[in-house]
């Protein structure tokens, strides 16, 4: 067989179309023309996303004896968001074009211009623009931001004009009321991040679990942000899912643990199949006032390198603010001895945070797995064939194995169903006898199934089957009794965990 040839680069539209057609991601409430920046996960998408969440959860709570998990409520006391700074400072700088009536994020317009400079080889010019933007936003000089947009000749993509309004700060939190009677209801917010649920439970977990610093608390949960300019499919949504871990440490160990988690988290992304050449660190030029260090792990999407995870040294900002506003001490008593032989005593722990977007990780995994190849024909006069498949890590694939009888008659179908049923308790297995077996292979390729098990007439004689491997399309003959162990090993989460 001739070697497959590389196909043209994948576009975001390729990803969106494939995700919808094969049951991974659908526009939400599509029969009513959808809702911007809101999506539903289909039957295959929910399996892939759940597998990614399981891999993250096990990597955190199973590989580390000093990390435990919680599941905090979405609704929280409104003062939580006052203490965290979200009420006063969780804003995006918005600007409108008077001619097109379209609204944009001012920082994204400037970042887009910086990307143009970078592509043109003017990296210094790009960096100077980003630095100036950071300075203006840090000084809350919104008029300066508007003037910078105009001076850079950044026009509205629709109207092609510079007729911009002033820049305004727009708070991203969704608000609602709690209470049975409107007059007696109280204003609360849908949480814009999951981290605060961890911080307000710091002492509950520490005391009930008898946890010793350093220790971490992990959580997976939904968060909500009223993104005005949502784009790039599921990369930026109004309802999304976060996988966060807050690691509580002694104040003088912040840099050590920041560096440690920075390396550990990059290993995780490589372990699930994201290639090293598509991953990079991006250190924050502008730090939050409470942070001593911050870095993003970026993945190369079809639309460029973008953040999938952030690692931040947050200091004691969150616990200290909650202590001040709640009047409840958020301190830890450390009986261990310091270098002078004295107990460390009471202190507010510092925090190193790791925060990865489950939806962004899904999109990165999906984009990386989407493979389009041209397979040269071995027969003269016949056209080359195009092959599309999802090259997912076997442990992440929605379906691990498909059992395919060669034909429905002569007992092959019944034999195939029996094999599928014997494997279902070990890993997700489907049975498919509809259509030519070649088309059934293709169906499984398109959703990323790593193994197809063909049942033929020889199976009826010696209880052997053919395993077809998705990526190489090679086949091997094995005994039915070997299937559970052979495939089970390849699709186990252990293969991911042992690589971290």
Automatic annotation (TrEMBL):
Its main location: cytoplasm. It is found in: Cytoplasm. InterPro entries: aa-tRNA-synt_IIb, aa-tRNA-synth_II, aa-tRNA-synth_II/BPL/LPL, Anticodon-bd, Anticodon-bd_dom_sf, Gly-tRNA_synthase/POLG2, Gly_tRNA_ligase_bac, GlyRS-like_core. It catalyses: tRNA(Gly) + glycine + ATP = glycyl-tRNA(Gly) + AMP + diphosphate. Substrate binds at residues 105, 193, 240-244, 353-357. Keywords: Aminoacyl-tRNA synthetase, ATP-binding, Cytoplasm, Ligase, Nucleotide-binding, Protein biosynthesis. The keyword Protein biosynthesis applies. Its EC number is 6.1.1.14. HAMAP family: Gly_tRNA_synth_B. Belongs to the class-II aminoacyl-tRNA synthetase family. Catalyzes the attachment of glycine to tRNA(Gly). This is Glycine--tRNA ligase. The gene is glyS.
